Amino acid sequence: MLKQTLLAGAFVLGSVASYAQAISPTPDQIKAYTAGWKGERSPDGRPRVSDAILARLKNISMEEAWGVLRNKGYHNQFEGEWQLIHTDSSMTGRVVTAQYMPARPDLQDLVKETGKKEGRVQTGGTNSWPIDVLKEGDVYVADGYGKIADGTLIGDNLGNSIYAKSKRGVIFYGSVRDVEGLSEIKGFNAWIKGQDPSYIQQMMLTNINTPIRIGRAVVLPGDIVLAKKYGTIFIPAHLVEELVLTSEVTALRDEFGHLRLREGKYTPGEIDTKWSDAIQKDFLNWVNNYPGKLPMTKKELDDYLKERNY
Length: 310
Prior knowledge:
By secondary structure, the protein is α/β, with parallel strands linked by helices. Strand 10 and strand 11 form a beta hairpin. About 40% of the residues lie in helices and about 20% in strands. Helix 4 crosses helix 9 (about 235-265).
């Protein structure tokens, strides 16, 4: 029994050591992180939520998305108090994570040697490695542990490369440099904790596409991010489609309720509590004759409302 226990322990330690020597998890490991997702995946194992859902998500408010996640038991997915290069834009995309730490020579040597064995670019700094894996629709999300001076993860050169590959911006719990140049990249934006003219120093990349912490939020590779001037929410891929539809219906309910309150047809108490049969019928009639274009298909709406407890 003791021998079996020792062998099992050695196997676990060997597995951990093997994992620790890789910059990124294997596709199977990323699939394990994101086991709730049953749809298409990228070659690296990350969930590939559709572009159509990403487009619809851009119209969802922070409060609506936060409320759905909270009801699902996800309490640690929001981070706020960002600085933005362009405050009037929003962004959605599939997360690529990166973890940075203060430099330690022996670990830094291991990271560089591991990257060399994996065929990663050896010229320049390791802060270019996460950029090399980006595909269109990806958002580069990095934990720079809040370092501002000498913690600038990118400047305008790397910013141009990021946008060329992903057609997206970045979210850094850290800083950037060359903000003036970054601001001139059409379509690019950055959610950051600060900016500084210094170069990155005494800081090292340790992992790509592993779980990271962004302030109050826990972020997994393949999460879907909703980023607005009001904050960022990181959504598990397997919940995003339901979140979008639920939030869209909530927005329709709010639009209907506000309209009827302005008309004086119902009291605030009637709208803010469980709706009566008469209000439910009025809402369904209003939706069926909606004056604009519904954000979802009629079938999606009908199927959702069948299960709805007003």
